[in-house]
Amino acid sequence: MQAPSYKVARFINKQLHALLQLPNTYTSYNSIQVIQNLTKLHINKTTKLMTLDIKDLYVNILVNEVLHITKTLSNYNNINNELSQEMNSLLEAVLNLNYLQHLNKFYKPNKRIAMGSPISGAIANIFIQYYENLILKHTLETKAIIYYNRYVDDILIIFNSTIISEEQITR
Q1: In sequence order, what DSSP letters do the residues of 20-51 get, joined into one string?
Q2: What is the pLDDT of residues 49-83, one digit of tens each?
Q3: What pTM was computed for the model?
Q4: pLDDT per position as a tens digit, 112-141
Q5: Domain that holds residue 99
Q6: What is the DSSP letter of 58?
Q7: Of 49, 29, 35, 16, which Cα lies nearest the Cα of 152?
Q8: What are the b/e assignments for 6-16, b being 16+ CB within 10 Å?
Q9: Reverse transcriptase domain spans which residues (predicted)?
């Protein structure tokens, strides 16, 4: 069963991809790409590997934070103010009308995004990429993290253990 906002969510999903032009700097869409990147790395005895999984990704993303991020990215990408406001209004309506069905019961996420909506994946990607670009860029420049790659909510990190520890990364 489709939510009442399903068609609008599909429309906004396409528009967000076109307007926000996410760089996907740290995102991979297939294992071949990851393997090609890994073969270019210089590994030594102080190099460590760790994998992470973002637990309950969708239900941990706050609607208000997503709206703030999309507005910030719209400004950064010089999107017309009127268009930006319209998209954010539609996005807010879709995210607030969101609900999910499980075992014949309906649930409305409280201030968070629902799984299964056509826009949920894009919203999660926008959310994560925003923070990756804020936080990771500096760490990668220091060479503490040698390689970082994400596929949806699964993360692969290769790091120099003489510069940064696992505990520092997971904080």
Answers
A1: H----TTB-SSHHHHHHHHHT----TTEEEEE
A2: 999 999 988 888 998 999 999 999 999 989 999 99
A3: 0.83
A4: 787 778 888 899 999 999 999 888 888 888
A5: 5-170
A6: G
A7: 29
A8: bebbeebbebb
A9: 1-171
pLDDT in tens, 143-168: 899 999 999 899 999 999 999 999 99
Give dist(CA 54, CA 60) in Å, integer.
10
Interatomic CA distance for residues 61 and 6, integer angstroms: 19
Tokens of 145: 């993290």
Give the three-class secondary structure for 165. coil
- Number of domains making up the chain: 1
What angle (nearest 5°) sits at the alpha carbon of residue 123, between those of residues 118 and 125? 110
Run of H or E including 107: strand 105-107
Q: What is the pLDDT of residue 5?
A: 77
How is residue 146 written in tokens? 């040698």
Annotate 121-156 with DSSP letters as a single string.
HHHHHHHHHHHIIIIIHHHHHTTSEEEEEEETTEEE
Burial environment of residue 123 by CB neighbours within 10 A (0 to 12, 13 to 18, 19 or more): buried
